[in-house]
Amino acid sequence: MANENNSRKAILVTPELCIGCRACQVACKSWNQLPAITTKNNGSYQNPPDLAGTAFNIIRFNEVPSKDNPVRWLFVSRRCMHCDDAGCMNICPTPGAIFRTPEGAVATNSDKCIGCKLCVQACPFDVPRYDEQGKMSKCHLCFDRIANDMQPSCIKTCPTGALKFGDRAELVTAAKSEGYSTLYGEKDLGGLGSVYAFKEEPNLYGMLENPRIPSSVVFWHTYLKPLSYIGLGGVVAAAAIHYLAVGPHKDDKEV
Ligand code: SF4
Ligand code: SF4
Ligand code: SF4
C-alpha cells in the first residue's frame, strides 16, 4: 500500500459541477492514442456504455426523478480509483505488471501482464479491461504526465472544475471547506486516489456502497501468491489462484 504522505496525488471529482460534455473522455483518448469503438444506442446519452480497453474514463449519465423537471441528469466520472489497498495489485501474480508510482497512481506494464484476468475478480469497482493484445488496460492517472509536472489530460481539459488534480490531503481539505459533507473514498480501501465530493447521497449517483476486496482475494494474496515467488511460476500460480478463487473459466463479456 502507498503511505499517506505529502507526495500522494489524487483526482478530486465534484459531480455537481459536471455538465456532461465528455471532454475528459476525448482528452484521455487523445493523450493515450486510443481508437474509437463502435457502440449501440441503448436508450441513454451515455456513450460508450461502460469502460473498455480503449475507454479509460466515461461519464455515467444517471437519470433520477425530480419535482421540478421531467428528469434530472446526474453526471459522474467513472474511472480507476487508484486504491491505496488495491485488490488488482494484491492478486496480480506477475511482479511489475501492476505497479505503484511515487505519486500513488496504480499503473500497468503491458509487457509484463500475462492476461490472466485475476485483477478483474479482485477489483471492487469493476475497472480492469483488456486491450486487443489481451493485456490489462485502465486509467493510469497519466503517470507519464504527472511525473513531469503536467496535469492529467482529462483534468487539464475539464472546463468546469468538476475534475481537479493535486496533493490529496490539500484537495480533501479544500473540498470540506467548500461544504462538501461526503468525501467518497476519503477512507475506503485505505483511501482512494480518486475522491468524490458530494453534498447529496453518493448512491444517488450510483456509487458503490462500502467497497471491499473479495475475501477470496485477501486469502490468496496472503497464502498462495507467495508461491509464485518461490518457484511455482507466475503462470501456474495464476491458474491455480484463478481456479480456486473464481472457479472454472467462463466466457467473459467485454464492453
Ligand atoms: S479501482 Fe480496481 S483497478 Fe483501480 S486500483 Fe482499485 S482495484 Fe485496481
Ligand atoms: S488520468 Fe489520464 S489515463 Fe486516467 S482517465 Fe484521465 S486522461 Fe485518461
Ligand atoms: S470534462 Fe468536466 S464537465 Fe465535461 S464531462 Fe468531463 S468531468 Fe464533466
From TrEMBL:
CC per GO annotation: cell envelope
Source organism phylogeny: Bacteria, Pseudomonadati, Thermodesulfobacteriota, Desulfobulbia, Desulfobulbales
Residues noted as binding [4Fe-4S] cluster 2 in the record, renumbered to the chain: 28, 139, 142, 154
PROSITE patterns in the cross-refs: 4FE4S_FER_1, 4FE4S_FER_2
Protein name: Formate dehydrogenase iron-sulfur subunit
Source organism, top-level taxon: Bacteria
Cofactor remark: Binds 4 [4Fe-4S] clusters per subunit.
InterPro entries linked to this entry: 4Fe4S_Fe-S-bd, 4Fe4S_Fe_S_CS, FDH_Electron_Transfer_Unit, Formate_DH_C_sf, Formate_DH_Fe-S_su, Formate_DH_TM
Cited CDD domains: FDH_b_like
Span of domain 4Fe-4S ferredoxin-type: 9-40, 71-103, 104-133
Location(s) in or outside the cell: Cell envelope
Residue numbers binding [4Fe-4S] cluster 1: 18, 21, 24, 158
Pfam families xrefs: Fer4_11 (PF13247), Fer4_4 (PF12800), Form-deh_trans (PF09163)
Keywords: 4Fe-4S, Iron, Iron-sulfur, Metal-binding, Repeat
Alphabetized Gene3D superfamilies for the sequence: 3.30.70.20, Single helix bin
Molecular-function GO terms, alphabetical: 4 iron, 4 sulfur cluster binding; metal ion binding
Names of required cofactors: [4Fe-4S] cluster
Taxonomic source organism: Desulfopila aestuarii DSM 18488
